[in-house]
Amino acid sequence: GKENVDSRHSRGRGAETTRFHTVNVAQPVRFSRKCPTGWHHYEGTASCYRVYLNGENYWDAVQTCQRVNGSLATFTADQELRFILAQEWDLEEKTFVRKDQRRFWVGYQYVITNRNHSLEGHWEVAYKGSSEVFLPPDPIFGTAMSEKENVLCAQLQCFHFPTLRHHGLHSWYAENCYEKSSFLCKRSQTCVDIKDNIVDEGYYFTPKGNDPCLSCTCHNGEPEMCVAALCERPQGCQQYRKDPKECCKFTCLDP
């Protein structure tokens, strides 16, 4: 919404002029944010994605993703994987592999069935939440393997250089689950309020945007059924400033 002040004059009792001021006339609003700050939105799956750089082992990474209502990322189609590979993840110098290569824990595990001349096994989805998830091809095996480990964890390797990323070049690694690595979380798109809080399905909230006087219902991760409050200007104040994050809250600027 944008501020619009409408003054109307009418004759009241005693021939005095009565002024009516309406602030924040409701305007049509487009909501473009469907993910919390720091997350990337993909329309194809209505999901949000975020890389965490703190360097955790696989099991700790699982718990971190769960704390933000998500899980380690799995992929339903090649298009989703290409979206992930093409993103700029705001990666810092802090990294656990070569600077031109980035590896992330993702939501697959490699189960070893035969340790003879080559490690034979198969990929599984770590958490049986998705019914339509593709499985990676044969992996590259990590260097920090133990003879006792029968389960290895998946790392997706992408490249730092934009030309390589946009061509979709990548590799799959089966790594010791206790190695520390960055990791990729995935969660459903969600409603985010004006103060960057996550809003649960069915709850009222004020969406991020320019109008703190909107109240909407969170439905399927988007604000719907929105209503707007109209604010009276502050009484006895000629110059004032409207609070951008609080509805009908003003600061009087008069001397």
Automatic annotation (TrEMBL):
Return the InterPro entries for the record.
Answer: C-type_lectin-like, C-type_lectin-like/link_sf, CTDL_fold, DGCR2-like_CTLD, IDD, VWF_dom
**Assigned GO CC terms:** membrane
**The C-type lectin domain, residue ranges:** 44-186
**One Pfam family linked to the record:** Lectin_C
Which PANTHER family does the record cross-reference, listed alphabetically?
Answer: INTEGRAL MEMBRANE PROTEIN DGCR2/IDD, INTEGRAL MEMBRANE PROTEIN DGCR2_IDD
Q: Could you tell me what this protein is called?
A: IDD protein
Origin organism of this chain?
Anthoscopus minutus
- The gene behind this protein is Dgcr2
